[in-house]
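Q: How do we represent a protein-ligand complex in a form that can be generated token by token?
A: Start from the inputs.
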Amino acid sequence: MQAICTAAWGGREPAGAFTNHTIERMTVHHTAALLDTNRNAPARARAHQRFHIDGRGWADLAYHFLVDANGNVYEGRPVTAVGDTGTNYDPTGHFLVCAEGDFDRQSIPAAQVAAVADVLAWGATQFGVDPSTIRGHRDWASTSCPGDGFYPLISDGSLEQAVRDRVSAVAPSLTVLCGEAAVALVADIETGLA
Ligand SMILES: [Zn+2]
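Then emit the structure tokens for the protein with zinc ion bound:
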């Protein structure tokens, strides 16, 4: 699996200091913003980061990774850094993966679920965290996140099983793609080719 580095998707440098943590569990989110076409995904990543930094006053995008509708993965804040939340729970120790879209208003595409599972499988392996720790944001705070079109895959254990299948099949790897290849991939996403 590869993740598009922040510079390649047009993200900004962190705007403040991070608090370090040790990842102990994995929590899934949605952005709660309809993605009309996946060509918008890189611009949405920039918009979310801009809002989190300028609107919320956070150091960076709240999440460690973003996943778009076609399963492209975007690097967020460093995994060593505690995430941020506008809701009432402490994200310390949580590996935060966010799916782009509003799954209270749409169902989640299969390619997106698969990529979320890929990222979680990498996290489970990288941090030695059991897939049984996978939860939705709504399990921790008063929110509908990650939406009724996604949460059932978490509550019924099917996302956990997809992660287990990946962990047992092959050691999941994650390459942060940067430079020309990453810029070309972002261009392909924006023209609907990826
Ligand atoms: Zn959330």
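The longest strand covers residues 25-30. The chain has one domain: 2-190.
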